[in-house]
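Run folding on both entries below.
>entry_1
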Amino acid sequence: MTTQRTALVIGSGFAGLSAASFLAKAGWKVTVLEKNDGPGGRARQLKADGFVFDMGPSFYWMPDVFERYFAQFGKKVSDYYTLDRLDPSYRVYWEEGHTDMAADFETLKKTFEQIEPGSGAQLEKYLQEALVKYEVGMGRFVHKPGLSLTEFMNWETISGALKLQLLTSISKHVAKHFKHPRLRQLMEFPVLFLGALPQDTPALYSLMNYADIKEGTWFPRGGMYAVVEAMYKLALELGVEFKFNESVRAFEVGDNVGDNVGGNVGGGSGAKASITSVVSSSGVYRAHAVISGADYHFTEQELLPAAYRVYSESYWQKRVMAPSCLMYYVGLNKKLKDPVHHSLFFDVSFAKHGQEIYKDPQWPTEPQFYVSVSSATDPSVAPPGCENIVFLIPVASGLTGDDESLRERYFNKIVARLEKHLGEPIRDSIVYKKMYSVADFKDDYNSFKGNAYGLANTLMQTAVFRPACQSKKVCNLFYTGQLTVPGPGVPPSLISGEVVASVCDRAFK
């Protein structure tokens, strides 16, 4: 009789939930260890005084990725939550006036034309090219584990790569189509989620523009946490066991011998050692495989004995990290006059702010910022007659001096700008406020340098150039999430869990 394979998944963020479910579907007995009190990782939910906040991701893009995810388990998105398409997708505030990114494409083309004559046709051409990248990138590249260049050595992949413009920056690519600085900012904005400046991000990621404009911005009723709840429910249906409030403290590693738990792993990793047990705050676990959805740097540098680490501390210090965030969860005791679900405040120069994030890390002088008012779409997330607002300022990872006085200073800055653009006061209507930044990312998620979005998707940190999803020294240790393949963001995290589950399952065949 064949022994059922067992797996421990560390962390219940999107990638961890995905990996756990795919392994359970493949017949594994899966246990998830989560240091916090519920599922979601960075996508946790905050409930306070009748307000409900998504603590992490708030943009629901690439709905096809979510549909595909649930379809692989014989389910549909609609089995778990209801989606509403936002219109406008988001609003961008400039120093003077604002631009709405309409959900209707013809309306959006007219908006572009008003800013720059001829840009409507250019937008059509640009998005036709972006569609090719979306189909090739999402269809052929993101599902590869990135363990070897040989994965890409076939004509279909090579011919596809020629269409992806990996050696051209998205900044140059956008500039060929649009001259007006506002249009350039609108087209470059989505790659900021990937954690690098547009001039350092491959033009491949114009696929994000296709996702933004053609596939649309959606909102799951109840908030993004509705997606977490759906994936958690699915995992439970598949038999996955969850243990919350349980921190992993260490891995015990021994020789890879025999077909005991943690031993006899194939898959060609070449590793001669395996994790024999996982020590947590509540006990000791043994499993055939360990998949870490926790921070990759923390897993290697804190949980693994030094002899079994693949990447040195100097390696990590040289990585280009995506930003961290300075966030505020705010409840108002009134309704805003004209709320828009997503707003971007580009009313100051990004050149300086970008420099202070990526090139000369420091707290920003005058930051651009983002505002989410989810109660504008879903009144259930705030008490009657109230509004919930999330403010987000991207900041460099690894900053020090993250204290309450600094957080208050930035809050006052951005609230004053918000009030100016909205033409109404909000400060006197604040009845709830929670601040969250670099130190909290470190404490809650063991996040390297307090990053919020993981490892930046620069060319030299794409695919095989990212930290590997399987350890080269410990045969039964695997990784998932935004520090490994395919990269940062919610859809890539779902894919990351699927990819690593497949690699893990094949290693034990």
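>entry_2
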Amino acid sequence: MVKLLSTFVWGAAVLFAAAMSSAQAPPKYRIVIMPKLVGITYYDAVKTGIDAAARELPDVAVTWTGPTQDQVEKQIEMIERLIPSKPDLIAVAANDPVGIAPVLLKAQRAGIHVMSWDGDSKEREFFVNLVDFEDFGTQLVEAMSREIGPKGDIAIVTTSFTAPNQTSWIDAMKRTIYARYPGLRIVDIRPAGESTEEAHRIAQDYMKSFPNVKGIVALGAPNLPGVARAVRDAGQAGKVAVVGNSTPNLMREFLKDGTVKTVLLWNAPDHGYLTVYSARQLLIGGLKPGQAFKAGRLGNFTPRKDAVSMQVALPVMVFTKDNVDQFKF
């Protein structure tokens, strides 16, 4: 009996030690995820998805870091400081797809894998896109035409003239207008950065400078509520249509009071979640065009080839006053 008890205790001790060793084992992969900037509501929502994926993947350690201003120069400085620490992968939402490319090439030459997410780059192994650019641009025009009809002047507030998402959406909008709605005319495009107040100011000026403007498209999550508030404050709700992309939390009041009828986006937390799963899949060598991989609770995604390497994208989500309360980000 003593011998049996001794053997049991010894076996239990070995199992406990093994469990403790496993629990204390450091993560195998170190991933850095960099947004365009930190400290805004939209990227806070994205980070909830990043954190959820990191909890599900114990072999991955995720660091979230980014500049406080949406400037590519700030991102370049931060990546330069990251390179000597040799993370396994850097995933960056580029503020400028061309400007950031040299430092990403430098990171690759140092043995670091490089991905794009949110804002694309000309130098990357994989891109976790928000949505299909052409589809999103088309849907923005379709949403506007449903409100103002097939003819009329519209203006655009964007984040910058270098942000790859916005420039791609605007190009897609122009192609859609040319092909389907030649009566629509873009009278002006101005950048507001990622500033609700600047977008508000630009929208006010649009309504003064272009008194016949029928609609304003606002690109960038912080910019749409600024444009909506300007239109509402001017008493133009229902007269000047407002369409764009933002989060349900930022746009709920404007959807409820009728200032805005349609908000387009993608599931922001899901985008962060998919970025982490894609990064891990790239590190274990499992990303190939046409070959699906499982992204946790989101199910399977199939990479497709593009002009740089390959990418996946989320579906477009449409928020209205009828469904906005179903979403809390």
